[in-house]
């Protein structure tokens, strides 16, 4: 989904994503990545449902990267992968699923990823592609320790 609402000054520099309030709803956000614009929002009744929520965007990033990685690998191997369909779902698991958690009240974020491989592939190729799916850059980022540094910009 693209939009021209809430222009904050054009494009984001390469490798930078800029998020600003779109001004069109309570939580509606405009996302700019290079020349591309998207909208994010919270579903009703919290937000206006003007775009995917942040978790949907996270899943979309993982799904897109997974599909691209599978297609790249299959193309290099000259395998008959016609299409990879990646379906993702996020959930927060309850504490009883958290056997080794430091905080017994904490929950575990769980992402379910189902991949449908369409094409004339044998079982060995299908098995290898599922292994490759787990090596996409976004999958590796999400499963590694992540450090997020947040700083205040003063004008």
Summarize this entry quickly.
By secondary structure, this protein is an alpha+beta fold. Helix content is 27%, strand content 26%.
Give the biggest sheet: 3 strands, antiparallel
CATH architectural grouping of the largest domain: 2-Layer Sandwich
Fourth-level CATH superfamily of the largest domain: K homology (KH) domain
| Shape designation | globular
Question: Could you explain the architecture of this structure?
Answer:
With 155 residues, this protein is of the alpha+beta class. The chain folds into two domains: 1-51, no CATH class; 54-143, K homology (KH) domain (GMP Synthetase, Chain A, domain 3, 2-Layer Sandwich), CATH 3.30.300. 27% of the residues lie in helices and 26% in strands. The chain has three helices and five strands. The protein has helices spanning 54-77, 123-133, 137-143, and strands at residues 17-21, 29-33, 36-40, 81-93, 108-119. The protein has a three-stranded antiparallel beta sheet, with no helix packed on it. It has a two-stranded antiparallel ribbon with strand order 4-5. Helix 1 (54-77) packs across helix 2. The longest helix has 24 residues, at 54-77. It is globular. The two termini are 31 Å apart. The model is unreliable at 1-7 (pLDDT under 50).
Could you give the topology of this structure?
Elements: E1 17-21, E2 29-33, E3 36-40, H1 54-77, E4 81-93, E5 108-119, H2 123-133, H3 137-143
Antiparallel strand pairs: 1-2, 2-3, 4-5
Helix pairs in contact: 1-2
């Amino acid at each position: 989904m693209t939009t021209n609402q809430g222009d904050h000054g054009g494009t984001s520099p390469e490798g930078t994503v800029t998020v600003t309030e779109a001004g069109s709803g309570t939580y509606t956000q405009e996302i700019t990545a290079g020349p591309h614009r998207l909208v994010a929002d919270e579903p009703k009744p919290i937000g206006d449902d003007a775009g995917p929520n942040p978790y949907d965007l996270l899943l979309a990033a993982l799904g897109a990267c997974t599909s691209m990685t599978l297609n790249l690998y299959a193309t290099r191997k000259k395998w008959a992968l016609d299409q990879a369909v990646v379906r993702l779902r996020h959930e927060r698991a309850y504490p009883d699923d958290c056997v080794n958690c430091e905080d017994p009240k904490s929950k575990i974020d769980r992402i379910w990823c189902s991949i449908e491989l369409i094409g004339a592939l044998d079982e060995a190729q299908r098995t290898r592609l599922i292994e490759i799916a787990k090596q996409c850059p976004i999958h590796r980022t999400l499963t590694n320790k992540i450090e997020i540094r947040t700083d205040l910009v003063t004008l």
